[in-house]
Structure formats: C-alpha cells, structure tokens
C-alpha cells in the first residue's frame, strides 16, 4: 500500500451526528485535499480552485463503484452520490485510467446525466482546453454533483441555484444577449417563427375597424342621426329607415376589410407552412430528449440533493463501470442518434438545426455550423440509422480503446468535409438588402470539424435582436456535454469547463429570406425567429391605408353638414324662435337636421365601396396583366393620382442576370455576331495543345504559335491580343465550377461566385472556347470547350479580392508547362499577375494608352458595366521579393491593410499591360425602357432606391433610360461633413435638370440633419438614384416625400428589403420575384412584371379615379336634390319639420329606384386603352384632382338646388301644396330625373348601363300600383298627371343639358381633344 499523503485535518460535515449513513457523507476537504506547497501546473486545479501539487504521493484508492453502490444502497432516502465517481485530478491510480482520454490528458469530471439520461455515456471524454482555468466548486460542480457542501459555500450555491430556476421561467428579454443551445430545447421562451402581414387580430379587428370607420365624419354624423331616432320627440318615420343603411354600410365595409385580412393570413400561412428539414438529436435507442435539469438546493435546506433515477439505469451504469475496471478498457462512447424530421416554418424554434440545400429560403436568422458536399452528406445521413451505435463523439477517435473501423470512418468523413467543402457556402441576399452579389459565408472551424452528432455540445452566444443586416458579434462554445450547453449561465473567465470557444461574425450567419446558392448541404442553428429576425425588424408594421379620394369626400361632407345645419337654423329663424308651435325651437332644429340628413348621403360609402370592388375585379381579370392581385381594395383610386414612383432596382427594373455584351482590345471591338471571330482566334491559339498531348498553353506559347497563323501582321497582332484577353478573363476571377442536375435529369455545368459579373465573364470565355474545368485553393484548370482537353493549368500563388474601396481584383498565377504531377518550382513556369477593375482606378495602373478613356465612356453611355483588364509578367526573383514583403506587411499590428496595399502598389500595380475592356449588361426586365418613358410623360417623377453598389446603379439608370442621354449626373458619396452637405444642396438647387446619385451613407446624413432641405431640392429633380440604401432608409425617403409634398407616392419592389418602403407608401406595388413572395404579400397590389405597372396606373388607375369622382358627385347630387325638395315643402308648410317622402319612398329612392343606374357609372370610360397609353398626358391632369374639386362640387350643388326647387315648386304650383297628388308628381319626376341625368353623364355606353336604366324604370312603373298609401292612384291614370310630369322634367333637364353642351364646345376636355370629337 503506498504511503498516504498528509492531508489537513478534516472538518466535521454538516450532517447530524446520528445519521446512519454518515460514512458516506463526504466533506469538501475529503474530495479536495489541500496540497503541499510545490510546483503549480497550469490547468491542474482542484475543485476548490486551489493549485494541486503533482509531486506528492498518491492517495489510497477510492473506487467509483463504492461511491455508486453507497448511493444506491440508501435508495430513495439519499441517492445523490450517484454522480460523484469522478476523480478531480490525476492523483489516483485506479480512477485515472477511467477518467483519461486516449491522449493521456486527465479528466476533471463527467456527468452521468449530461447527455440526458443515465444510460448515456457514463465517462464521456472531452477535448480539454489547457488555457482555461478551473472554477470553484460552487460555480461548476454543483451543476453536476448532488453533494453536501460546507456551510461557507452552501448558501452561495443555493442562491445561484435559485437564480438558475428563475432563468428557466423567464420570457425572452429582447434587450439582452441570448444563449442558444444547439439542437436542444431552450430554457428561455422565444417568439414563434411566424411571418405575419395581417393588419388585425381577432381581438383588435372590431375596435380598430370601427374606429377607422367612425373617424370619418359622415359615418359619425349618421350614427348620431340614427341614435337620435331613439328619442320620441325627434323620431320621423321608421327607425329602421336610419338604422338599416348605416348597419348595411358597416357590414359591407367590415366584411371587405375582414376578407382582405383573411386573404393576407392565408398567404402568410402558405409561407409559414413551408416545409424544412430539421436534425433531431436523440439518445441511442430512445426517442426522448434530454432529461430536465435538476434543482439545486442548499445543504442547509435539505440533506443533499435528491434525484430519482430508475434502478435499472443505475445498475446498468455500475455494470459498465465494473467492466471497465476489470480490464475491458475504456468503453466506447455512445453518440447522440441523429434523425431528420420535417417541420413547417412556423414550428421552427430557436436552437433547431436546419438542413438547407441549394435554392432553400432561409426561414429565420441562423448561424452556419457545417457545410457538407452533397455526396458526403448523403453518406453520413445514410450511415446514421443502421450504425448509430458505432458513431463516435468527435474527440473519441483519439480514445485508446475505440473501435478501429469506426475511427477510420470518422477520420475519412472529416477529411472529406475539409477537402470537399472547407465550410464555405454562398447565399443570395437580394431579398434582404437588394445586393446582387452572392455572399460567401463560412462555418466556424470549431463546428465544421465536429461530427454532426456532436453538435449538441455547442452553444451560441448572440447579441440582442438588431435590424443591422451587416453586423453580428457572437461566440460559439464547445462544451463537455449537452447538459452543459443547455445551461443558461454564461461561463465566467475564471471558470474552466474544458470549453473551447470561437468568435462568430457576419461571415458565419445567414439571415431570414436569404437563399442558399451553393450545392453543398448547409447545417445551421436558428438564433432569431419571427419578429426578432433582421428582415422583420427592418419592416414597419402593416397599417390601414385610406385613399386620398376618401379624405376629399370627407371634407366635402363637412361642407354639406354645415349647409344642413345652416338650413335648419334658417328655417326655424324665419318662423321665429319664440313663435314655434307645439315644440321648443331647438327640437325643431334637430328634427330639420334629421329630415335633411339625406344631404349627407350614407349610400355614398356603399356605392364607393361597391365601385372599388368592381375596379379590383377589372384589375385581377385583365388579360394584359396576368397574375395581378389586389390585396388592399380600399385604394384603387389612388393609382390614378401618383406623382412619385420609388422603385427598387434588383429584380424590379433588372432581372439580376448578367451577360457579356462587348469586348474591346484596343484597335477593334467585338459584340454580338462578331464573337464568332473571337472563338476562331481562341481555337487557333489552342492548336498547340492539341498537337502535343503533354504540353500546356501559357501566354508565351500562345504568342509564338500565333506567328504561323493569320494572313497579315495586323491580323496576327489582333489575334494575339484577343487570345491574351480571353486567357486573362478565364483566370482572373473568384469563380468555382460546379455540376448540377437540370430539370431533365442531365448533369450540367454551372458556376458559383460572389459576383454575377464574374459568372457572366466566365460563361463568355466558355462560349468562345475556354472553359473553367476545376478550381481549388491552389490550382485552376482550363479546358478547350470543343474537345474537352486540358489546355491550361495554373498554380494560384496569391489572390487580391475585390473590395468596394479598391474596386479591383488581382491574381498571381504560375503556368504549368506540361501535364505533370506535383507542384512545379517557382523557376520552372511563367509567373503572371492579372488584374481587372473599374476604369477609374485602373487608368492610373495600366501603361500609357490613348483609347481607354474614350472606350469606357462609350460603353458607359450604353449602360454597360465596364471592367479594364491588364497583366504583368514577374520573374521568380521578383515574385519572391514581393511575397516576402507582403508577408511582412501582413504581420504588422497597426496599419496592416494600408501596408499590404502599399506593397502591392509598389511591386505590381504599375506599368501593367492593358489587354482590353469588357462590357457586361445587367439584363433589364421586359419593356422597362418604354415603361419608364411612358410614366415620365405621365408626369410621374421616378426615384430608384437600391441596396446595390454606386457603379451598378449608375449603369442601370443609364441603360434603362432613367437618366437621359447627356443628362448631368451629380454624385454624392461618402459624405461625412455638414458643410459639404450644404454645398451639394446649393448646387442641386441651381441645376434642377440634373440627376442626383447618392449613396446610403450620404443619404443618412441628409435624413438626419437636413431632411426638409434635402427633400425640397430633390423633389425638383427629374430623377434621383439612391444606392446602398437600408430598408429603413427607403421607408424614410417615402415618408419624407409624402409629408413634404402632400402628393401620392407609389413604391414598387420585389424583395424582403422593399417591404418597409412598400408599406410606408400611399400605394405599394409588389412584384412576384424569383425568390420569395414577401414584397408581393405585403403590397397593396401584386403584379408579375414591371411593365404591368404602366397599365395599372395609366389605365386602371385613371379609370378608377375618374369613375369614383363621377360616382361620388352623382350620389351627393342625388341626396342634395331630395333635401332641397324637402326644404321647399317645409317652407310651404309654414316651416314645419314634416317629412315629404316618408318610410318606403325614402328607402326606395336611395336603393331600388336609383342605385343600379348610378352604380353603373363605374363602367364608364372616356377614352379607350390605346389612347390612354398613346397620350399619357391624360394621366398627368388627374394629379391636380380636378375631377373632384371644390369647383366641381359647387357646380353639382347649384344643379341640385336648381332642379330640386324647380321639381318641388312646380309640383306644388301645378297640383297642391300638400297631398298625395303632389307627392305622386314630385316623386315620379324626381326618379325619372335621376335616370335621365345618369344617361346624360355617360360618355361611353355599356350594355349593363342600358339594362340598369331601362330595368329600373320598368321596376318603378311596376311598383306604382303598390304605392297607394303614398300616391293618388286614380290621378295617375289621368292625362293631367303625364303632362305635368313631362313639363317639369323638361324644365329641369333641358337647361342642364344645354349648359353641358355649351361648355364642351367652348372648352372641350382633354379626352375629347385626343378623340378629335
């Protein structure tokens, strides 16, 4: 027996002295003896945090089985020692073999339930981080061990345990950072992953809609009138006469709002029901997840911590330990079983691990964990189910006693992962920020090199939800077990839990509504869901939109109400306030108000709402606009009043597809069909490679071989230049070739790159004969397109990627001379530096020439994106000198970037040979140019707001003719000083015919400091182009224009980054994009192509506004004329407030006798569609609002007063003042007058109008026999009735019609001019 180590005197435990099992009550000092003073080794600390002396002699053995059996013997009374069997240092012989990893590192602890259950691996090994320090027992061990502590620790431990319990019950605090356990359930409740564009909830629908309805004056007016009928003194006729119309209006309006919102919810449900594959991590052989966390209690409160564990589980653990101790070696660790489950987007939760592949929309904000090639992913997931018992933990491959076959499989998988994919994936963010370039995203090496089944040991620390789409700071931690990862307490710096941590940045994330563009399978953990995603935070909440026509009618209604009140008071005053008989004067005024309530026609809302439904039906059924959807049916008239159009670029004006259109090599330019000549030159240059099977092409060999080909020296020189520029373009890029399966199941070549420009150029080189066959980090291989033979192979020495500041990218390559294995020495092959970039920066880098500026200007005028291509040959010595200096600069602590760029400029970027200029076109959407021109002619000012680069926006603005040829473009970029901002504004005010091109940084300064001044200058310009705009900035611009100009603003876009702008606009139009439908769902109107917008505005918008304006004025006329008749009748009755037409006559007049003819006006049109498109100036005159103005309103009021006085006055004069004869004549003339007025107002007849007018007349005639209670039916059969009706009608209608004809002749409207009528 080895000599015992001297320990400090053991202190008595806290347990009672008479405890029968006191021999098992282990004090802290027994488990964590104080060492003698000696050498302190880093990473070897005891439970109490004291350094352990490794030089003292070993202690007596304490078998883990003894501790386990002791806990088991005591059963339910005290079974808290089941997890104490871990050595806390490397000082005990017997426990050391059990608690070590195969690499010899000691284990501090292990948790039997760390993996979620007692049949999980008992002594799971972990990768230690020797640089982290061991924390105290109270902070770390308490989470794992049910242990009685000394009193000086137990109180603090209990407090910490209680805090942990509180954390479990807490809701998510959006203002704080979050801890996310990968693949596990979270202790904090996060919001659900639901997309919602709905305006109402079940609880808010009635209050909000009723408030919106009664915020309109005439609805409130009629509510008060209806309520007044509950007072007997004010009641006139049936109560239902006033209640029913109001109820009908509200039901129609609320029903329409409910229908629109239900449709939004249905569309949202489609997006929320999208299926996704989620990895589920279960215990081997079990379907359940992790066991719930134990509650930690103080020893002062309880005698040890109690936890019930099934006896079978406990015995199986003991059996496993005995097998290990008896010589079977460390048992194989059992990993988590990975299975795939399908979940709908709405069911995704924070912590879920998604499996995403090419074309998948990312449903929430995620952190990328792993990227696997498709072959590897299939191999791994196919192997999971049948061999899950053989899978190792990531670190278990190093364990000494592990299975050799499983170990080799794990290593192969790891090598395949690293070699095939390197943790890289591309995403498309055009739905988020509008940028067309693909973004490279990386998995953290910590998670990329971890076995998939071990991802549950990871924990992500992220910041609070933020709307900044280009920023993210977080941490990825690899913890010993799943239970540690699920712990909500962040580890402090002085705690050591064998944790490995890695930083996370924006490069490790993919935000919601981005799209995976790579072929590799991507595993990612959800960090933010639903309303906390970047895209949702950048989106303003939905709001109810009300058309400008509604506000104009509301103001006219106030005038009518004032007329009603004035008329009531005048009538009472004429009688005399003190002379009122039978009732008090103010009661009479109230009765007059009720009688004249028809002046404010409640049917106006019904007619307008029904008209809106008709306009929506026309839009959705238009064959020229297939796929058009009206999502907000309350504002179609606003389509005819638009004065500012704010458009996105990517996917709206452009297709986001690049095509190489032109190449210039100094003396000759090639485009379109001339590209065949380029192909011929390339084939000639590759002839050498086909003659010698081992030889490869390099710039010098292509030069020498060209000497034998071609008729003239000039032609040979041109051929040589063409081949050089094609070779340069085929090599100077960051494109990676891939193969994918097309719709027919065939494998086709495709390319991946961060910029679509580069893909377009590489596709062009393939079309002219030089295909990029393969590429990795060190080599690139080019093939001849026709033969498929390898003709060029280069070794990549250095790459200088494109940056927005540098505006250029370069590459240094060494050419292989022959097909040979291995890497050639620097002296054995040509070394060339290739560079391409914007003409603004390349002009000073390339050698002197006389054609570059002119050609780039020519291409820019055509709207092409230009790139200047050059090259420079380096000797081996020059490259080695450059490489040494560049490496030295890359190690500098301060000024690293500037130093590295200085070295590149000094050694490479001077006297570069100019090879040529390329012109790439960003393909526009169909008919964008004529559409923009038509909209400009219609008086609409067009702004382009995009998240893309300044150069890209400039090219698209020119190519789409948004900027006219020769128009001055004033560029404001990277503005940081206020005085400079003011100077730019002064310049813009002096040049109001120029185009403003401004970037997001400068726009942000103007919006913050000079909002009003900026918009006052900008709205005078014909065109404004804003680049690098955030979604919030787009919305702010829309709001600023609305508030300053008080004009109608329309916003159109196709991506998630356009939703805020669309919702902020008066009219939001969404284009159904290639990726996602978010903009389309949030918009008021959804179309499939940009050119459909012209028809939506110029045709449907114009018709909707003019029809509604005519309809509104006619309904007002209809109500006003009957009120005038009532006034004349009351005057004749000595100012008594008695009703002229009571009960059914009142209801019938506003409904069955006039409703259909008046409503048929919504089918009227003044010009046909061809004329509307041919003369867009017809749209321009609508913006002034002349169709419904105070002038036209008062004209209709005068007509109503004239006709009402004439009809009622002559009826009373020709028959009797009061009686059924007068009522019969007056009412008949009134109804027929309305029918004929409708006929007079119609411009273009429609068969529905004829049916409505004739049908209503026949209905009136047929109903007369049933009106005996109101009419003198005997009088209706006499000739006297008919001549009276005819005479009154003639006097009422002939002057009105004559005035209209005279006005048309003297001052014809615009539509009659274009029709040449």
Task: Please characterize this protein's 3D structure.
GO terms for molecular function: ATP binding; ATP hydrolysis activity; ATPase-coupled intramembrane lipid transporter activity; magnesium ion binding. One of its GO terms (cellular component) is endosome membrane. The strands form 7 sheets. Strands 16-35-34-33-17-29-32-31-30 form a 9-stranded mixed sheet, sandwiched between helices. The chain has a 9-stranded antiparallel sheet with strand order 19-18-28-27-26-25-24-23-22. The N terminus is likely disordered. The protein is of the alpha+beta class. The longest helix is centred in the last third of the chain and has 41 residues. Helix 14 runs parallel beside helix 34, helix 16 runs antiparallel to helix 34 and helix 29 crosses helix 30. The radius of gyration is 42 Å and the shape is elongated. 41% of the residues lie in helices and 16% in strands. The chain starts with 27 loop residues before the first helix and ends with a helix.
Short description:
By secondary structure, the chain is α+β, with helices and mostly antiparallel strands. The protein is elongated, with a radius of gyration of 42 Å.
Itemize the secondary structure elements and their pairings.
Blueprint: H1 28-31, E1 40-45, E2 51-53, H2 64-73, H3 96-99, H4 151-169, E3 178-181, H5 205-214, H6 217-228, H7 240-272, E4 275-282, H8 311-328, E5 337-344, E6 353-356, E7 365-372, H9 374-384, H10 404-420, E8 424-428, E9 438-442, H11 445-448, E10 458-462, E11 474-478, H12 482-486, E12 500-504, E13 509-510, E14 515-516, E15 521-528, H13 534-537, H14 548-575, H15 585-595, H16 603-620, E16 629-630, E17 642-647, E18 654-664, E19 669-671, H17 675-685, H18 687-691, H19 699-706, H20 713-731, E20 736-741, E21 747-752, H21 756-767, E22 770-775, E23 779-784, E24 790-800, E25 808-815, E26 831-837, H22 839-842, H23 852-861, E27 865-874, H24 876-890, H25 896-907, E28 913-924, H26 928-937, E29 941-945, H27 950-959, E30 969-972, H28 978-990, E31 995-999, H29 1000-1009, H30 1011-1018, E32 1023-1027, H31 1031-1045, E33 1048-1053, H32 1059-1064, E34 1067-1071, H33 1078-1082, E35 1085-1087, H34 1092-1132, H35 1144-1150, H36 1155-1159, H37 1169-1174, H38 1177-1180, H39 1190-1214, H40 1220-1241, H41 1247-1263, H42 1273-1276, H43 1279-1306, H44 1310-1314
Parallel strand pairs: 17-29, 17-33, 29-32, 30-31, 31-32, 33-34, 34-35
Antiparallel strand pairs: 1-2, 3-10, 4-5, 4-6, 6-15, 7-13, 7-15, 8-9, 8-14, 10-11, 11-12, 16-35, 18-19, 18-28, 20-21, 22-23, 23-24, 24-25, 25-26, 26-27, 27-28
Helix pairs in contact: 2-8, 5-7, 7-16, 14-15, 14-34, 16-34, 17-20, 19-20, 20-21, 24-25, 29-30, 30-31, 34-39, 39-40, 39-43, 40-41, 40-43
């Amino acid at each position: 027996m080895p000599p015992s180590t001297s320990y400090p005197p053991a202190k008595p435990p806290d347990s009672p002295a008479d405890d029968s099992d006191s021999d098992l009550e282990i004090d802290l000092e027994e488990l964590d003896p104080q060492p003698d003073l000696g050498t302190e080794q880093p990473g070897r600390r005891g439970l109490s945090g004291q350094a352990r002396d490794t030089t003292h002699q070993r202690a007596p053995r304490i078998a883990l089985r003894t501790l386990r059996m002791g806990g088991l013997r005591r059963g339910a009374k005290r079974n808290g020692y089941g997890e104490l069997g871990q050595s806390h240092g490397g000082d005990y012989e017997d426990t050391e073999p059990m608690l070590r990893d195969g690499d010899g590192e000691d284990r501090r602890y292990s948790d039997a339930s760390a993996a979620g259950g007692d049949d999980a691996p008992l002594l799971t090994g972990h990768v230690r981080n020797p640089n982290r320090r061991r924390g105290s027992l109270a902070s770390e061990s308490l989470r794992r061990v049910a242990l009685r502590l000394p009193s000086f620790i137990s109180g603090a431990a209990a407090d910490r345990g209680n805090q942990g319990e509180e954390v479990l019950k807490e809701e998510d605090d959006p203002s704080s950072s979050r801890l996310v356990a990968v693949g596990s359930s979270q202790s904090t409740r996060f919001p659900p992953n639901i997309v919602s564009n709905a305006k109402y909830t079940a609880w808010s629908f009635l209050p909000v809609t009723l408030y919106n309805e009664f915020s309109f004056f005439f609805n409130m007016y009629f509510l008060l009138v209806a309520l007044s009928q509950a007072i007997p003194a004010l009641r006139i006729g049936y109560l239902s006469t006033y209640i029913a119309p109001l109820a009908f209006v509200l039901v129609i309006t609320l029903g329409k709002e409910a229908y629109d919102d239900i449709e939004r919810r249905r569309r949202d449900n489609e997006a929320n029901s999208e299926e996704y594959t989620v990895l589920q991590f279960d215990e081997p052989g079990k379907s359940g997840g992790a066991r719930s966390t134990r509650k930690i209690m103080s020893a002062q409160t309880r005698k040890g911590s109690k936890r019930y564990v099934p006896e079978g589980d406990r015995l199986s653990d003991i059996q496993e330990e005995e097998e290990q101790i008896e010589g079977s070696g460390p048992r194989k660790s059992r990993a988590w079983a990975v299975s795939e489950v399908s979940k709908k987007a709405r069911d995704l939760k924070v912590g879920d691990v998604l499996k995403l592949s090419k074309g998948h929309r990312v449903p929430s904000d995620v952190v990328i964990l792993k990227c696997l090639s498709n072959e590897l992913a299939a191999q791994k997931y196919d192997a999971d189910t049948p061999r899950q018992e053989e899978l190792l933990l990531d670190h278990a491959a190093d364990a000494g006693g592990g299975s050799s076959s499983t170990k080799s499989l794990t290593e192969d998988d790891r090598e395949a992962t690293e070699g095939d994919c390197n943790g890289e994936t591309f995403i498309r963010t055009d739905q988020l920020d509008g940028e067309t370039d693909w973004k490279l995203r990386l998995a953290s090496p910590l998670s990329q090199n971890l076995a998939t089944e071990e991802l549950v040991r990871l924990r992500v620390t992220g910041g609070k939800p933020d709307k900044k789409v280009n920023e993210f700071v977080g941490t990825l931690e690899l913890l010993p077990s799943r239970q540690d990862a699920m712990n909500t307490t962040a580890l402090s710096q002085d705690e050591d839990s064998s944790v490995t941590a890695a930083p996370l940045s924006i490069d490790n994330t993919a935000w919601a509504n981005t799209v995976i563009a790579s072929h590799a399978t991507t595993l990612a953990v959800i960090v933010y869901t639903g309303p906390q995603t970047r895209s949702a935070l950048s989106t303003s909440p939905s709001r109810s939109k009300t058309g400008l026509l509604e506000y104009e009618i509301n103001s006219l209604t106030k005038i009518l109400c004032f007329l009603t009140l004035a008329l009531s008071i005048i009538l009472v005053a004429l009688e005399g306030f003190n002379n009122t008989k039978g009732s008090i004067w103010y009661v009479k005024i109230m009765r007059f108000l009720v009688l004249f309530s028809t002046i404010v026609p409640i049917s106006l809302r019904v007619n307008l709402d029904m008209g809106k439904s008709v306009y929506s039906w026309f839009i959705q059924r238009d064959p020229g606009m297939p796929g058009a959807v009206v999502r907000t049916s309350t504002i179609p008239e606003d389509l005819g009043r638009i004065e500012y159009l704010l458009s996105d670029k990517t996917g709206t004006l452009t297709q986001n597809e690049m095509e190489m259109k032109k190449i210039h090599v100094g003396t000759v330019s090639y485009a379109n069909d001339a590209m065949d000549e380029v192909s011929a030159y390339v084939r000639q240059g590759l002839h050498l490679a086909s003659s010698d099977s081992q030889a490869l092409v390099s710039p010098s060999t292509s030069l020498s071989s060209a000497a034998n080909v071609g008729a003239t020296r000039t032609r040979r020189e041109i051929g040589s230049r063409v081949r050089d520029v094609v070779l340069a373009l085929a090599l100077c890029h960051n494109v990676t070739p891939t193969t994918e399966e097309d719709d027919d199941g065939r494998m086709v070549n495709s390319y991946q790159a961060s910029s679509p420009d580069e893909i377009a150029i590489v596709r062009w080189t393939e079309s002219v004969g030089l295909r990029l066959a393969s590429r990795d980090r060190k080599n690139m291989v080019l093939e001849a397109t026709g033969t498929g033979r390898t003709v060029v192979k280069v070794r990549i020495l250095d790459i200088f990627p494109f940056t927005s500041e540098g505006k250029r990218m370069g590459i240094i390559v060494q050419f292989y001379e022959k097909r040979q294995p291995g890497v050639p020495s620097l002296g054995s092959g040509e070394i060339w530096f290739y560079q391409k970039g914007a003409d603004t920066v390349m002009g000073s880098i390339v050698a002197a020439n006389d054609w570059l500026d002119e050609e780039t200007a020519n291409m820019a005028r055509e709207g092409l994106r230009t790139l200047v291509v050059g090259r420079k040959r380096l000797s081996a010595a020059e490259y080695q000198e450059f490489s040494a200096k560049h490496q030295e600069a890359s190690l500098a602590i301060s000024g690293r970037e500037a130093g590295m760029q200085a070295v590149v400029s000094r050694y490479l970027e001077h006297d570069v040979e100019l090879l040529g200029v390329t012109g790439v076109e960003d393909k526009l959407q169909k008919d964008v140019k004529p559409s923009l021109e038509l909209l400009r002619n219609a008086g609409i000012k067009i702004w382009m707001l995009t998240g893309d680069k300044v150069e890209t926006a400039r090219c698209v603005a020119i190519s789409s003719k948004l900027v006219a040829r020769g128009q001055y473009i004033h560029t404001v970029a990277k503005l940081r000083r206020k005085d400079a901002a003011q100077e730019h504004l002064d310049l813009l005010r002096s040049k109001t015919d120029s185009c403003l091109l401004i970037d997001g940084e400068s726009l942000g300064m103007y919006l913050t400091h000079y909002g009003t001044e900026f918009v006052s200058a900008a709205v005078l310009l014909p065109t404004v182009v804003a680049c690098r705009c955030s979604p919030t900035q787009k919305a702010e611009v829309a709001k600023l224009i609305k508030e300053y100009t008080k004009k109608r603003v329309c916003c159109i876009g196709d991506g998630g980054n356009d939703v805020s702008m669309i919702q902020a606009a008066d009219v939001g139009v969404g284009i159904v994009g290639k990726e996602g439908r978010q903009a389309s769902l949030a918009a008021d109107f959804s179309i499939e192509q940009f050119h459909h917008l012209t028809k939506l505005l110029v045709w449907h918008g114009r018709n909707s506004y003019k029809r509604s304006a005519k309809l509104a004025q006619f309904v007002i006329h209809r109500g006003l004329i009957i009120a005038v008749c009532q006034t004349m009748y009351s005057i004749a009755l000595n100012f008594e407030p008695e009703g002229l037409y009571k009960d059914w006559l009142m209801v019938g007049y506003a409904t069955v006798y006039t409703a259909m003819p008046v409503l048929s006006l919504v089918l009227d049109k003044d010009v046909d569609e061809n004329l509307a498109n041919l003369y867009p100036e017809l749209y321009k005159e609508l913006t002034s609002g002349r169709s419904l103005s105070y002038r036209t309103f008062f004209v209709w009021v005068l007509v109503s007063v004239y006709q009402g006085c004439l009809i009622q006055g002559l009826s009373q004069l020709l028959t009797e003042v009061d009686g059924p004869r007068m009522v019969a004549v007056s009412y008949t003339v009134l109804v027929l007058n309305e029918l004929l007025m409708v006929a007079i107002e119609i411009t273009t007849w429609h068969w529905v109008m004829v049916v409505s007018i004739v049908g209503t007349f026949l209905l009136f005639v047929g109903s007369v026999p049933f009106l005996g209670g109101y009419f003198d039916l005997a009088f209706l059969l006499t000739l006297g009735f008919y001549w009276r009706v005819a005479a009154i009608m003639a006097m009422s209608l002939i002057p009105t019609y004559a005035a209209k004809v005279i006005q048309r002749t003297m001052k014809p409207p615009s539509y009659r001019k274009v029709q040449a009528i």
